[in-house]
Amino acid sequence: MLSTTFGALADPTRLAVIGRLSRGEATMGELAEPHRITPPAMTKHVGVLVDAGLVTRRRVGRTVVCTLRQEAFTEVEQWLGDLTSYWNSTVDRLEELLRGDDDDH
Amino acid sequence: MLSTTFGALADPTRLAVIGRLSRGEATMGELAEPHRITPPAMTKHVGVLVDAGLVTRRRVGRTVVCTLRQEAFTEVEQWLGDLTSYWNSTVDRLEELLRGDDDDH
DNA sequence: AGAACACTTCACCAATTGGTGAAGTGTCTG
DNA sequence: CAGACACTTCACCAATTGGTGAAGTGTTCT
Lengths: 105, 105
Fold this sequence. Notes:
The structure is a homodimer of 105-residue chains. The first copy, chain A, is α+β, with helices and mostly antiparallel strands and 105 residues long. Chain A has a single domain (2-104), classed as Arc Repressor Mutant, subunit A (Orthogonal Bundle). Helices cover 59% and strands 13% of the residues of chain A. The first copy, chain A, has helices at residues 2-9, 12-22, 28-32, 39-51, 74-89, 91-99, and strands at 26-27, 55-60, 63-68. The first copy, chain A, has a three-stranded antiparallel beta sheet with strand order 1-3-2. In chain A, β2 (55-60) and β3 form a beta hairpin. The first copy, chain A, starts with a helix and ends in a 6-residue tail after the last helix.
């Protein structure tokens, strides 16, 4: 569900993790490092992102490497696109009309 | 904060409210009607959306009319744009390389 | 084999969230 | 002015969330 995706993004730490992962893969330790946070807390945060389908985890040696699943963001893009395209086709036109910017009529 | 915005969108009822308001203004009653939910619950949901800056409320007679604040979504658009533009400029190129689709080099 | 490392799982806690019914506030209608 | 109407505020509740320290798991290093 889309609300689950937004729920996963509804936390500054997790948003920062997404930002970090958008620059490339990272281990749990690398993700935790900039945030004054304990390992269990980061495990939970990444768990939320994995459950929402935004991130994948795999074991590499004794580390765990996390990767962003770009496909998961297409749903959000779609939703936002639908929302804003509607405005562009109706509200903006109406505003133009109200302002009198009706040159092309 | 962006995480607050996502937090406001992290609920199916509130997502439906946003969808409804994208088609035009609506009263609290109109917003509550399709969701088997009590008035206090809808007051809370809309309150969350107002606090996040996504919606404005104004009294009209004895009803309360809600309106979407489109500007609030530009922050999300910006964030999503940054995220995906990065993939388009690097990851896709890398994948092309790995697949051997390097015709234009 | 034993120690160090990089997490994860396991209680556990305080704060927040989504819901409720009951009572309160402001507005229109007869 | 009395009642109906459209909410909102007020406790209150159960479930979820974000955090912790302590103990457990799997991997590498010596």
